[in-house]
Amino acid sequence: MNQLAKSIVDMATGDKENTKEPPTDEVKAAAAALGRLGGLKGGNARAKVLSAKRRSEIAKKAAKARWGR
Q1: 28: number of CA atoms within 13 Å, CB side?
Q2: Is residue 68 a part of any domain in this protein?
């Protein structure tokens, strides 16, 4: 833990450069694809589990929050 603290102080004071490289475009694209895949599955899976009555309650609450002002 002390080594981490010292390296942070060194980087903050300019004594040491940050040697960590930013992610490449390939890594960013792969991460985005994985996130999108999970997002596409999530909404449909949740809708299948909820009853029609519960979906209606959620929609009414959302509409009230959106237009209730």
Answers
A1: 4
A2: yes
Please state, in angstroms and rounded to a whole number, the distance separating the CA atoms of residues 18 and 61. 47
Are residues 35 and 27 in contact, defined by beta-carbon separation less than 8 angstroms? no
Domain count across the chain: 1
Amino acid 47: pLDDT: 86
- Average pLDDT over the chain, rounded to an integer: 86
HSE on the CB side for 4, CA within 13 Å?
Answer: 1
**Who's near 16: CB < 8 A, 6+ residues apart?**
7, 10
Residue 24, both tokens: 């490449």
